Structures are given as C-alpha cells and as structure tokens.
Amino acid sequence: MSHSHGPQQTIRIADAKLAPPFYKATAEFLRNSKKSGLKLRQGVFNGKRVEYFKGKSGVNGLLKEEFAKVVPKDQEKVTTREDAIKVMNDLGKYGFILRVNRGDNIGGRGSARVLQPNPQQELKDDGYYMWIYEGSQIKLYIGALLLVLTVLAAVLFPLWPETLRLGVWYLSVGVLGLLGVFFGIAIVRLILYIITIIILPRGIWIFPNLFEDVGIVDSFIPFWAWDEPTKKNTSSAAPATATETTNEKAPATADATPTEATPTVSEDAATSD
C-alpha cells in the first residue's frame, strides 16, 4: 500500500499484520486512551475519517508505568525518551502510523482537518501521526453480526411460533409498565415535595435516592426523607472567628503582665531597704 505526496514523492507503508507481536501490543496500548493518555484527534485522509495524534503525546504514553506491563520479559524495557522515540519510529516502519501534515478544517473551526502525508517520517515531538492500524476488529464483527441477526429476527417476527410471539408481547408490556411506574413515581414525588415545602418548613422527598448513583434496591431506601438544606461554606468564617477570639484574649494578657510585675518590684524595693 502506498500514498502519493506530490507528483514525485511516494511513501511505502508496510503491512502491520506482519509486525512482531510486541509492536502490535504497543499499538493496542497507545490506542487505549485511558491507559496511554493519548489525545486522539479527528482528521480526513483521502476522503476517509481517521484518528491522529501528536508525536510528543505518543512518546509520553510509552514512558508510563502501565506500558511496562505490556512489554514482554524478553523485550528490552522502554526507560528513556530515546527508547520511546525508537519504538515510535519502528511503529511507522511496520505500518502502524504515518506522519502527516495538517491542512485546513473541512467544516469550520473545531472540525476535522485535511491530512496529507509528510515525506519525512522520522518522529518529531511537534509532528502529527495518523493511525493506519485500526486495532482488533473482532468486536466490530461481533457487533455487526448481532445487528444483522436482530434485524433479521424482527423481520421474521410474523413467522415466529405463537408461544414466542406471546412471550415477546408480555415482555414488552412489562417493560413499558415498569417505565410507566418509574415516571409515575417521579411525578408523584415532585408534586408531594412542592406541597410539603409550601406548608412545612422543609420539603419531603419520597424515595430520596431514586436518582442517585446507587444500586436498584438502594434507590428505594429509605421510603421518605426530609429535604436536606444546602450546606454553606464556613471556611471563610473560620479565620474571622479565630481573629476575634485572639483579639479578645490579647487585652487580658496585656493586663495580666503588669499585675504580675508589680509585686516583684515591691519585693526588690523591700530587700534593698
């Protein structure tokens, strides 16, 4: 596979499927933004949507501790920035990434940019690199297969046995019923809260944890609770209180010092006499 840049420049790209397992694992790690921290951007290359990143971001990803777990025991560890740059250059040689130049936005500011191959493929911190390797396609194939089977099953629904069709009907009615009950509870609790907040000092919530990030059972425990008032920030009041306390104690200390000093002077005077 090759991409042309200008009338004379041709960049040959190797087949990433033939690369050693270490580089495949490295590419999979970098494509996982949560682990590598790689910031992916959207671009358009030869009319196709692609993802690209900055060279510095890729090098930093290989220097993370999480990447050390990916490196096999018989493989030399990536410990320095030079090691990471070498691995990134090898990813380009094996056909995982391609250095590109950014062009104009295709749809205004913030949209994807047009990408063109760069004749110089060595890694640069400020360079941009496009992913050629798309990662494992197993999940994509499984998802596509499930989608086809779902559509096919829906189309053939009239041919299903009567028992299955009746079961699906009961299931759909049950799901719709649960949704109706949920929305009904939400409306009733809101009405009750509005009524109680008018006639009582504080409002009452039915199922106060209904919309909280808890389990299904915990969402309905407790049955009701008072509306908790918003806690005010008391951090700013604390220094003022401490200052007032100090100011109140200061005069007392100042008054006590002369009182203690007076008997001492009297004793010295008596001794001198």
Examine the secondary-structure arrangement and name the CATH architecture of the largest domain.
Orthogonal Bundle
> Helix/strand/pairing class, anyone?
alpha+beta
* Main sheet characteristics: 5 strands, mixed, barrel
Largest sheet: spatial strand order? 3-4-7-5-6
Look at the structure and give the mean pLDDT: 79
Compute the number of helices.
8
Q: What percent strand?
A: 15-25%
Q: Which series of helices and strands comes N to C? A: EEHHEEHHHEEEHHEEH
Distance between the termini: 114 Å
The name CATH uses for the topology of the largest domain is Arc Repressor Mutant, subunit A
CATH C-level of the largest domain: Mainly Alpha
The helix content is: 40-55%
Radius of gyration, in angstroms, nearest whole number = 36 Å
Q: State the CATH superfamily name of the largest domain.
A: Winged helix-like DNA-binding domain superfamily/Winged helix DNA-binding domain
Unreliable spans: 1-8, 234-273
Whole-number count of domains: 2
Number of strands: 9
The best one-word shape is extended
Pfam families: Sec62
Main location: endoplasmic reticulum
Organism: Phascolomyces articulosus
Keywords: Endoplasmic reticulum, Membrane, Protein transport, Translocation, Transmembrane, Transmembrane helix, Transport
